[in-house]
Write a structure and sequence with these properties.
Shape: globular
Strand order of the largest sheet: 5-4-3-6-1-7-10-9
Helix content: 25-40%
Distance between the termini: 25 Å
Number of helices: 5
Number of strands: 10
Radius of gyration: 17 Å
Strand content: 25-35%
Largest sheet: 8 strands, mixed
């Protein structure tokens, strides 16, 4: 059976985005010793290599497509970003959307659009099959909804050494789930702290 795994970074005060949905503003006080740290890129590249599918919301798909298709032509892109761009292009993508058109998928032709009304069933069917993981990146509202509906198996939450103060909290509501800590990890010369959590329903 496949697992559905979520990977996101967040600030120490639990924010997914800064003020006005801005991520860049979170780095205003980023410690100078961590400038250029790309451990999160390496970690997500590992997750992509070990997954059969990348699951994205409508907006996350378009944002990622716009960004990653431009990386190969960016002379300032790091080697791991270039590799990740290739992984994004090659992995089969699932997009939960009622508005996305086939024309908007190009050049990512290995993409399946799943209507919202069919999302729970199709994802449950994919999870029941043998294979590698289904990975969710960004797409906060999508995976929060899947968490509520018992479809998320693991949360990979990486705390960055940042305090947002105000912005978008990573959780939309309080889901009825229990969490078991599987792993914590740090990296030399990085302020990031990975926490991996197994998700289950609480026992009555």
């Amino acid at each position: 059976m496949r697992k559905l795994i979520v990977s996101n970074f967040l600030t120490l005060d639990g924010l997914y985005e800064g003020k006005d949905k801005n991520i860049i503003s979170l780095y205003e006080y980023y410690h100078k010793d961590y400038h250029g740290d790309d451990t999160f890129d390496f970690y997500n590249a590992d997750l992509l290599r070990n997954s059969d599918f990348l699951l994205l919301s409508h907006n996350a798909f378009l944002g990622n497509k716009d960004y990653w298709t431009g990386v190969p032509n960016n002379p300032n892109a790091t080697d791991i970003r270039r590799e990740t761009a290739g992984l994004f292009a090659s992995i089969e993508k699932l997009v939960i959307s009622d508005k996305l058109t086939r024309e908007e998928l190009a050049p990512w032709d290995n993409t399946r659009i799943i209507p919202r009304s069919e999302a729970y069933k199709q994802l449950a069917d994919l999870k029941a099959q043998d294979g590698r993981d289904i990975l969710v990146l960004l797409s906060r509202l999508l995976w929060n909804d899947l968490l509520v509906h018992g479809l998320v198996d693991e949360l990979n939450l990486t705390f960055f050494p940042l305090i947002g103060g105000e912005g978008t909290p990573i959780f939309e509501e309080r889901p009825t789930v229990s969490l078991k800590l599987l792993e914590t990890r740090t990296w030399p010369n990085s302020g990031n702290i990975l926490t991996r959590w197994e998700v289950s329903r609480p026992q009555s």
